[in-house]
Design the sequence.
């Protein structure tokens, strides 16, 4: 591999060496050389020649790098030759197989012609039609799947009986007493809205405008009544502070 100088700064060959046009017109020497690389390295005159000589001496003394380059080049050449050889062998094999098939086809045609001539001679010289070509074997038809018949249901299915709704529990007199100011009609309405279990006293909702029974774990029937009562207490406290 021929020697070529590399950039001492970026170790690449992406540089250019030119002569100063003005000095070249007046017969300038090496002092007019201008070295410029893409990395920004610049040299002028004798510095370019000195760098070139230095790198060339190092390249000549370093035989290991050149031997590695020669070995890599030889390996690439051998690989390329082996690939081309395989390609030529594949093409030769393909040509040989094609020639053998054509020869077999020609022999088959000659054999058919010989048999046809023998038949003509056996029939007394009468013209006989050429034997037709052998038809290709037809593929077997695919058997159709038999339709599956649904089995009739032996007995009709009966609908499950619907359970009757339990009758709402009646309000007990103890619940009516615990309410105090509420009337018996309100107790009956709340009992219809939320039936209670036997032996459990019914308590009315703490919001005065509501006539429903309270929940088991609260003194209100719902979150809405609780918020209404809280807003009412807040308004009372606000008016009391203003007064």
Sequence:
């Amino acid at each position: 591999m021929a020697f070529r100088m590399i950039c001492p700064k970026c170790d690449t060959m992406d540089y250019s060496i030119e002569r100063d046009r003005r000095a070249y017109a007046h017969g300038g020497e090496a002092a007019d050389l201008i070295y410029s690389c893409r990395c920004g390295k610049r040299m002028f005159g004798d510095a370019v020649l000195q760098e070139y000589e230095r790198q060339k001496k190092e390249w000549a003394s370093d035989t290991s790098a050149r031997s590695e380059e020669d070995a890599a080049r030889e390996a690439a050449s051998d690989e390329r030759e082996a690939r081309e050889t395989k390609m030529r062998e594949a093409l030769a094999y393909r040509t040989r197989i094609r020639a053998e098939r054509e020869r077999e086809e020609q022999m088959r045609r000659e054999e058919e012609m010989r048999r046809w001539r023998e038949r003509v001679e056996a029939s007394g010289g009468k013209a006989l039609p050429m034997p037709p070509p052998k038809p290709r074997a037809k593929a077997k038809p695919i058997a159709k799947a038999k339709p599956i018949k649904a089995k009739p249901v032996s007995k009709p299915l009966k609908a499950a009986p619907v359970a009757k709704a339990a009758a709402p529990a009646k309000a007990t007199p103890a619940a009516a007493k615990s309410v105090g100011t509420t009337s018996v009609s309100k107790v009956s309405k709340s009992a219809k809205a939320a039936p209670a279990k036997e032996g459990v006293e019914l308590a009315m909702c703490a919001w005065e405008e509501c006539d429903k029974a309270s929940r088991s774990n609260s003194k209100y029937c719902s979150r809405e009544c609780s918020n209404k009562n809280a807003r009412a207490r807040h308004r009372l406290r606000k008016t009391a502070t203003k007064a």
